[in-house]
DNA sequence: CATTATGACGCT
DNA sequence: TAGCGTCATA
């Protein structure tokens, strides 16, 4: 049993784990032109989310508060992440206020894309570990390299009496810095065997990839090379920053044996804790003493195998190669000071989140044409209030012309979701108050491709005939424009200084796409020339509009603002640029309220009445004035300020009706339970 | 250990 | 499938 679960093939792979060094910091350093040697950190509200290595020397760590950090190092440069601000362009604002601003991580996402794009030039077999991490299956690259070196006669062989085979000889010192860091002291400089040879060239290939990332984008990273994701991941953190590590098959037992169990990937959480408690183990080698059969007595089969293999440094699965994001989400949590107390505030913020996601979705269309089918809203509400309430609702997000034209439809969908969440709770007969709202999360998932060349009724309805006739190669070229057209150097520059179209997210996103009335007819092709297409609206027009407008519009914003941020931190004194009054905590002066007041709320986007009566009912609730909950702490004047009383009365009736139904259901449930 | 903003995936 | 939970990283 135990023998067949692990095979030679498990060791035949070569996997790199590449991890950027304090990623957010690096991005900010490059953006601001600050040297790596200057202590710098990236802050989000009061806390540090990234600390560079110069700052770590002062003992500054992630999660520390900015103030604490500055005590340790007065010269520390603290950069706050970019934010969306009411009525302003998204960017590096002076004094971002958690009550009114929203974090914007675009800059890092774009840098991340560039990094993955560099990796993709080596192989498509990589997996995104996170925004700054990649698992790369370099087996093929390594084998190719080995073949090449053999054919060049660069690899020496010796005859091994034990196995009756010719084995390759590895001279580790010949590989230079790339092959320098091996874990374990046992390894000699002279080594034999295919597994070691693969590791050797694995290290060389990995170093090439890292070099490419650095030379093309200026980012340093660390890496681990081994035959599994588990081991490579462990290796990449061994020699940070800007170095790599090799874990040879022969060194694996020693290497992970002494490790605490929770160091292993996926065992750092509850599972790891459970294992430790159930089996009374601490280290990985403790775990290795337990047979698979024993583990299966404690855990589900799959989990048991997973644990068994993990403790031996083996991946249960192959590295999937997927590059496209599978979901987009936008979150806003309101800390302790700015929890939301009115429906209007919730709707305003939901509009912000929607617009954020919409913009990112649109940006993504430039790279991959795919669109989510589902929109999920999650509200987190106070724990002191009734039972902790974290509930979510889904919504079908139809791909259609309108939803691409402006964020309005998305906003509207999301705001309907708010209403559903608040009023259509299914399993509670009396509706607990959702207020105050601590956190809002909007999530899009279930992407499907809408490749123009593929038949899809909705798409073909929308895209004009002439657009459909675009020749295929042109389309494919245009797909690549985002990451491939420009030389790497100009690329990073454009990314940081000009690619910033998300102006006035709060204020004018509504007009930016639609008010540009002139029909845009160009798509950018690979060679940076433009090709004329049908004058009708097509998929790409929107982006061309953006690309054109951003160049002169944005340059001043992203390139100059950051330095103000810097000065804000007390480094250089520059006059405090006229700041929007940090708006009062609870009132969002955000313009998305435009959306809310436009009363597009009373039109139904989708024809839902046929197949989803619950939703269509809820649409009526949108302008509800009165919170039906008894324990609601919503000031009634807040409600009264923007409601229609007539509708409210009607809605109250519906509310009661709905409650009845819920009660009926719960009675049925009770009966059923009684029967059982 | 926390916080906040993300993302992937698994279970039922 | 909807909805929730787990694990991860900056």
TrEMBL record:
An example Gene Ontology CC term for this record: site of double-strand break
Domain UmuC: 15-268
One BP term from GO: DNA repair
Keyword Zinc recorded: yes
Keyword Transferase assigned: yes
Residue ranges of domain UBZ3-type in the record: 620-654
Xref: InterPro entries: DNA/RNA_pol_sf, DNA_pol_Y-fam_lit_finger_sf, DNA_polymerase_eta, Rev_trsase/Diguanyl_cyclase, UBZ3, UmuC
Highest rank taxon of the organism: Eukaryota
Region ranges (Disordered): 553-585
UniProt GO MF annotations: damaged DNA binding; DNA-directed DNA polymerase activity; zinc ion binding
Compartments in which it is found: Nucleus
Biased composition (Polar residues): 556-570
Pfam families: IMS, POLH-Rev1_HhH
Key words, A-Z: DNA damage, DNA repair, Metal-binding, Nucleus, Transferase, Zinc, Zinc-finger
Signal peptide segment: none
Name by which UniProt lists this protein: UmuC domain-containing protein
UniProt organism field: Smittium simulii
């Amino acid at each position: 049993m135990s023998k067949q679960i692990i095979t030679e093939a498990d060791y035949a792979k070569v996997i790199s784990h590449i991890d950027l060094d304090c990623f957010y910091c690096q991005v900010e350093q490059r953006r601001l032109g600050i040297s790596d040697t200057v202590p710098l950190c990236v802050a989000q509200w009061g806390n540090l989310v990234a600390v560079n290595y110069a700052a770590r020397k002062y003992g500054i760590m992630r999660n520390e508060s900015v103030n604490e950090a500055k005590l340790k190092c007065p010269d520390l440069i603290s950069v706050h992440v970019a934010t969306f601000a009411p009525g302003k362009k998204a960017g590096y604002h002076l004094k971002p206020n958690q009550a009114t601003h929203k974090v914007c991580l675009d800059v890092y996402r774009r840098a991340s894309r560039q990094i993955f794009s560099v990796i993709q030039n080596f192989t498509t077999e990589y997996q995104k570990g996170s925004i700054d991490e990649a698992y790369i299956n370099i087996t093929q690259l390594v084998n190719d390299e080995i073949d090449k070196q053999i054919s060049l006669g660069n690899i020496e062989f010796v005859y091994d009496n034990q196995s009756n085979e010719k084995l390759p000889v590895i001279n580790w010192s010949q590989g230079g810095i790339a092959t320098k860091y091996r874990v374990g002291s046992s390894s000699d400089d002279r080594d034999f065997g295919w597994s070691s040879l693969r590791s050797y060239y694995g290290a060389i290939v990995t170093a090439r990839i890292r070099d490419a990332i650095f030379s093309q984008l200026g980012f340093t990273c660390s890496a681990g090379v081994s035959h599994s994701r588990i081991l490579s991941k462990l290796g990449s953190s061994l020699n940070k920053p800007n170095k790599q590590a090799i874990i040879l098959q022969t060194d694996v037992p020693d290497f992970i044996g002494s490790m605490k169990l929770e160091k292993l990937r996926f065992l750092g959480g509850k599972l790891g804790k459970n294992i430790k408690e159930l089996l009374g183990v601490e280290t990985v080698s403790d775990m290795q003493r337990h047979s698979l059969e024993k583990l299966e007595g404690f855990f589900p089969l799959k989990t048991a195998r997973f644990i068994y293999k993990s403790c031996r440094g083996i991946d249960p699965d192959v590295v999937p190669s997927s590059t496209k994001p599978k979901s987009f989400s936008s979150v806003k949590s309101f800390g302790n000071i700015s929890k939301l107390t009115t429906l209007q505030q919730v709707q305003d913020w939901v509009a912000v989140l929607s617009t954020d996601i919409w913009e990112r979705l649109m940006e993504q269309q430039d790279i991959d044409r795919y669109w989510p089918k589902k929109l999920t809203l999650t509200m987190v509400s106070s724990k002191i209030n009734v039972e902790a309430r974290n509930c979510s609702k889904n919504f079908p997000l139809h791909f259609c012309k309108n939803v691409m034209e402006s964020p309005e439809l998305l906003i509207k969908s999301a705001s309907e979701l708010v209403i559903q969440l608040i009023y259509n709770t299914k399993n509670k007969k009396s509706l607990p108050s959702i207020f105050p709202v601590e956190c809002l999360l909007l999530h899009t998932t279930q992407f499907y491709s809408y490749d123009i060349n593929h038949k899809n009724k909705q798409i073909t309805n929308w895209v004009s005939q002439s657009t459909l006739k675009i020749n295929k190669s042109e389309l494919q070229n245009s797909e690549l424009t985002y990451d491939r057209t420009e030389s790497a150097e100009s690329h990073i520059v454009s990314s940081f200084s000009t690619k910033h179209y998300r102006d006035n997210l709060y204020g004018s996103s509504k007009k930016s796409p639609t008010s540009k009335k002139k029909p845009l007819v160009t798509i950018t092709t690979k060679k940076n020339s433009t090709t004329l297409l049908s004058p009708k609206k097509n998929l790409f027009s929107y982006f061309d509009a953006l690309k054109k407008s951003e160049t002169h519009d944005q340059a001043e914003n992203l390139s100059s603002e950051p330095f103000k941020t810097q000065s804000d931190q007390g480094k250089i004194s520059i006059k405090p640029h006229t700041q929007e009054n940090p708006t009062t905590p609870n009132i969002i002066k955000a313009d998305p309220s435009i959306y809310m007041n436009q009363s597009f709320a009373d039109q139904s986007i989708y024809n839902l009445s046929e197949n989803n009566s619950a939703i269509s009912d809820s649409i009526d609730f949108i302008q509800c004035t009165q919170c039906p909950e008894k324990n609601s702490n919503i000031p009634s004047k807040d409600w009264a300020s923007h409601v229609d009383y007539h509708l409210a009365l009607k809605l109250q009736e519906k509310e009661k009706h709905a409650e009845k139904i819920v009660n009926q259901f719960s009675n049925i449930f009770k009966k059923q339970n009684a029967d059982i």
